[in-house]
Amino acid sequence: MSEMTMDTPKGGARTRERVAAGIARRYRSERRFRLFGLVAIVSALAFMALLFVSIVGKGYSAFVQTEIRLPISFDVAVIDPQGLRDPDEMRAANYGKLYRDAIHGLFPGVESRSERRLLNGLVSSGATFEIRDAVFAAPDLIGKTREIWVPASDDVDMLIKGHIDRRLPEHERRMSDKEIAWIDALAADHRIETRLNWRFFSQGDSREPELSGIWGAVVGSFLTMLVTLALSFPLGVATAVYLEEFAPKNRFTDIIEVNINNLAAIPSIVFGLLGLAVFLQFFGLPRSAPVVGGLVLTLMTLPTIIIAARVSLKSVPPSIREAALGLGASKMQMVTNDVLPLAMPGILTGTIIGMGRALGETAPLLMIGMVAFIVDVPGGFSDPATVLPVQIYIWADSAERAFVERTSAAIIVLLSFLIIMNAAAVYLRSKFERRW
Amino acid sequence: METAILRDTMHTLSDTHAPEGEAAPMTAKIEARQTNVHYGDKHALKDVSLDIREGEVTSFIGPSGCGKSTFLRCLNRMNDTIDGCRVSGTVMMDGEDIYDPKIDVVQLRARVGMVFQKPNPFPKSIYDNIAYGPRIHGLAANKDELDEIVLTSLEKAGLLAEVKDRMEAPGTGLSGGQQQRLCIARAIAVSPEVILMDEPCSALDPIATAKIEELIDELRENFTIVIVTHSMQQAARVSQRTAFFHLGELIEVGDTEQIFTNPKHKLTQGYITGRFG
Amino acid sequence: MPFSFLLLVLAGLSVIAYRFGVSRARAVAPGRQAVLHSRPMYHGLYVAIWCGIPALLVAVAWVAMQPILVKGLVMGGLPDAYDALPKARLDLIWNDIRNLALGDVVRADPAPEIQAAAETFRRLYTIGNAALTVLCLIAAPLAARYAVRHVSIDLRARNRVEAAITVFLVASSLVAIFTTVGIVLSLLFESLRFFAKVPVLDFLFGLHWSPQTALRADQVGSSGSFGAVPLFSGTLLISLISMLVAVPVGLMSAIYMSEYAHRKFRAVAKPLLEVLAGIPTVVYGFFAALTVAPFIRRAGEAMGLSVASESALAAGLVMGVMIIPFVSSISDDVINAVPQAMRDGAYALGATKSETIRNVVVPAALPGIVGGVLLAVSRAIGETMIVVMAAGLSANLSFNPLDAVTTVTVQIVTLLTGDQEFDSAKTLAAFALGLVLFCVTLGLNVFALHVVRKYREQYE
Fold this sequence. Notes:
Oligomer: heterotrimer
Number of domains of chain B: 1
Shape of chain B: globular
CATH superfamily of the largest domain in chain A: MetI-like
Strand content of chain A: 5-15%
């Protein structure tokens, strides 16, 4: 290159020289900068991968549950001593004795009171109700002996799943050597197995990890979302239609607009405070009820839906509106017959995204008492209920090791719902996206 | 028809290659051969072969969309920044192909400066705008040298008198014409060998335009200048040589006087007499 | 009849009314519908609206007011001795009555007058609900009948229906206003009651926070102290840590995505990054408390540092990750708004890509980026679940990221969950904190949105 410099003006030669001198350093910094960018993205994604791996890794084992097979003899003397077959009497019978007798029968050598209690502890107290339900489902069992699978206690479950370390010295572990020996004996006898944890999907909350399930929370979430959807969708669409199609451009509508933008950025917990002060204290609506949760989430979701709906309405070209008006349609007819149907895919996408956020929301629901410990599956909009994310919060706070896996499993379920909703939104958008 | 155009083009090209017929021998600073540009499926520039002579002002004229700006952007590889743009053929500068993979685009652009259609000062002070190029390329060893470069550049761009009291004011606060001269000063601060100007006056009023044209004339002493313009009068006023583009093809190139008084090609004739364009 | 069922019945009645309206309209102009001012559908809607809406309004108003009326009647019916009791005590009694009546919590041997009151409560509710049902079921058909009679060739049914819809549209857009007004009023009202007990200055500038109020006045520490500065400092510390994570990572991700990344890489990485924004905060909280915090603690101990198990670092770090997609999507918008001409100017001078970005694009986009970061800060300040689960409860005035600190939102949740009486300084304090939170985030948002809008206008 240098042989060329003789014809070029002096400044040009100097520039070439200087630029060439610095170029290596500059490209190094270029590569460094680029690397920083890549590192930023990769580290964010790596964090996400870590989060998913950690949660799935902790949670998948909750979908199975350790159970113990016991030879239960359905003793008439225990279940129905008078032989009247009176359901009320039978319901009150001491079914716990049946499984205790069964397990004592398996270990005849265990005689001291304290050891027997320890032995009983291997079986979940929930076994009582399952044996009772078995009797009610098939009353002809009475007087016979059957092998029945009953849930093991959470400690046994944790040991079988490997969360209790057998190598630790006895005093540092949650289980004594004796208990482990019993469990091993049961296992050798093929009396211990991990089986599909149907309770997790069909039960409400419980103090006992092995009996607790998410069904109550799922139903609570469903009812809450139903209220939210039923209110926020019509209100949101109506507001967007008004602001976009009808509202005069004046101070008043300006205020509404600014207001909506700000509402979208207010911390969700403030909506919880509003719900507590207005819906619970002022209007006296019931605490912990899906209807109140739905109301609070409606107010929170509305801005999202309104903003999405307005964007969608805006993207409908004016030519459609002019064509409708030109044919003699009233403004309302133009909106309902022509504009809204075209904007609907976008509005639905926005609604699904808003509902997804509402489904994962926790903080405002804590304020209105949906954090209570509720065993029953809610049957209506004003029954006390909890929702999935709050259930996750409650379990995350519990001390038992077994709740860790349940929490993770509940998160897996919640995330699955969210993934399905978002996939639906993406599908809607790609299917109906229109370029004008 | 096409062969006719080609023949004419070859004819004019052979003119430039036979400098012995001219009074003063001129070296070609840039030689483009068979340059093609595709934007995706669109063939925007077709087989353009053209020389840019050192120390002269060459103007590109032609109706909009004729490829003159596209060709200009080939000369400092600004087309690289556009997605889906492919350039083929050779563009030699001082005997080196600037599309050779060995050529570094940063070094190339330090040698070939550019001024755009719309003034685009950076959102920085006037001083920092001018000092930007010298700083990134490390042209000044110290603050005094940098001050020197900035002042000379502003002086050369004829802007010094107007801005010397407010060097720290934002460059975006100047008037349109001043902004464009700022951009020219910014380009010459790097001491390039060639300056490309893409319709530098199209966004300016007549008085500002006159100032820029005057400036171009002065800059010719130190730089090789290529200017794209949609105004034939401007081409006639500022350039020594003129190239006429039409639909992505180079129709005719020659001394400005010859192009405007005695065009060889029908299309050129039609364009300069205002029958289309 | 449960309220939701009543609504269903009303909806059903409206559908029937619609059919009536349509057939009536067809009947008044047999075979020559063109003479009708409005199409039969609109007559149907007209009748349906008359049938459903008045009854619905009555029902909603009834349900909203019933609890207030019932409370007045029940409390008024208590023996005179109760009138003299303080308000807080009365509220507790009211709770007992309600629980007794609804059969929620069975308290051991309630006083006979309480039991009687509960009985009244139950009776009033039964009567009220029955009356509402009867009222609705009579009012709806009557109103529909009134409307059907009006159906005629000249009835401007379409205009009336459209007017009704317009009223609905306007009313809907007022909901947003009412929400804001509701928030402001409820926070302000409860906060004023709080400030009647605790002076404003003590709250805003006090250095000691321990909101335990004792049940009896003579207990130790009965007053509780409500100096919120440790909460503010804790909130700031955690927000600062989260910004230190979110801003560089988010900004660099946006830059890489928009300036460097291959189209295919972008198509995969961008939606993946958005997934981070869709993960519920309770999940982040769980992850922070169970995985990140112990990890930081172990790492700190390995380096010989003492780290609290609920360190501000863990909560801030995870919160930062949560905010990354927010920062990156705003930065992406803002960076793309910088005109290409600006980049071209730098490239034409021979700047490398990173020089162009660092010296031209980012400075040009700076106002927008600052606005976006402010919005992100307001998110961090208002974020609740991560800090509730991973930050501490004790109010330490500390700026050491390895200490446990507490935040405004954590305290709001702590003060308001669990059993509580609504009037105590403790619960009211939550509203005062909420008011501070609301004002700060609102201020940040208004300012940030203003900055961003100004920035956009600059390049439009």
